Amino acid sequence: METLKKGTLAGLKTTWTLGKIIFPVTLIITLLSHTPVLDWIIAFLSPAMKWIGLPGEAAIPLVLGNFLNLYAGIGGILTLDSLTVQDVFILAVMLSFSHNLFIESGVAASVGIKLWVILLVRIGLALFSAFMINLLWDGGTEKAQYGFMPKPEAAPSGWGEITLTALEKASLGILQLALIVIPLMIIMQFMKDKGWLNKFSNWMAPAMKLLGMKENTSMTMAAGLTIGLAYGAGVMMQAAKEDGVSKKDLYLAFIFLVSCHAVVEDTLVFIPLGIPVLPLLIIRVVTAIVLTIVVAYFWNKMERKNRLTREEFQHETRHHTI
After folding, report:
1. How far apart are CA 206 and CA 50, in angstroms?
2. Do residues 193 and 3 make contact, with C-beta atoms less than 8 angstroms apart?
3. Which residues 6+ apart lie within 8 Å of 88 measured at CB?
4. Helix, strand or coil for residue 84?
5. 143 forms bridges with which residues in the sheet?
């Protein structure tokens, strides 16, 4: 009973913390989607698409995916019948790295990660991957064949309906968050009380060590990998606080997770686009591993250099004192 109480309270607290970010962002972005603002951004970005090997209209799914969510981006792709397989694959890789920017970046920032780091990694990876695929892949010139078309939603008429739709989406977002986070927190509390979390951390320790992190980061990583940044943030916040995850390990975990999170769901949703999803998954996982190891290497190198500088300074101070 105590486990249930603790888990529910932790879940409600997390839902409140994340809800304060998700509700207003969802509301504002939904309202903006019924104004000319997104069209202006698309028109502004269209000329730059050629630098990453995409036609101008490819800006539509990129803006929709980054401003709204992955499904909106995929919906945008499905409305374009002139794209090649290579175009769609590039868009899929870009959207895998960079989607739902406002909510997921806001949630990550609430855990204590600087916003500019999240945006730099996500947008940087999206642009770099697109440039490299366009540079290295000569194939995929045939026209893309989509698996199925989503049912179009009836557009609300008038600002009254638009506002109601925006409020409904924002409210449903919070409800969905609560329905996922509260049971997860109860399960986490149960696993902790049974001592299973320690066993899991020990099992994950070799992988954490390879990525330059301590084993107490394992729950944070597992949550992000399986259920994503937005919904996994609740578990991450709890795990980071209770397991005493260091600031460095938290940054490394999030650098990995912004590159590769919700690996099953975020890969399977691209199947209707008729592209090979296994290479998409491999690109995400390999990028996340390499990037995290490289950042951890330079971070550790910088820490050692700073430590040696402090020791030399202390030695010099003692010498002059004597």
Report:
1. 43
2. yes
3. 77, 144, 273, 274, 275
4. strand
5. 84
Residue 274 is given by DSSP the state T
- Cα gap 74→37, rounded to integer Å: 20
Place of tokens 């902790």: 192
Question: How would DSSP label each residue in 108-174?
Answer: HHHTT--HHHHHHHHHHHHHHHHHHHHHH-----SBP--S-PPPPPPPP-HHHHHHHHHHHHHHHHH
What is the average pLDDT across 81-104? 89
Asked if pLDDT for residue 151 goes beyond 60, the answer is no
> For the residues of 11-59, what is the DSSP string, one character each?
HHHHHHHHHHHHHHHHHHHHHHTTSTHHHHHHHHHGGGGGGGT--GGGH
DSSP 82: S
The Cα–Cα gap between 121 and 123 comes to 6
- Residue 94 and residue 60 in contact, taking contact as beta carbons nearer than 8 Å: no
Phi-psi domain of 260 (left: phi exceeds 0; alpha: psi -120 through 50; beta: other): beta
Taking the whole predicted model, whether its pTM rises above 0.85 is answered as: no
Cα–Cα–Cα angle for 226, 123, 241, rounded to 5 degrees = 45
**pLDDT band per the 50, 70, 90 thresholds, residue 231:** low
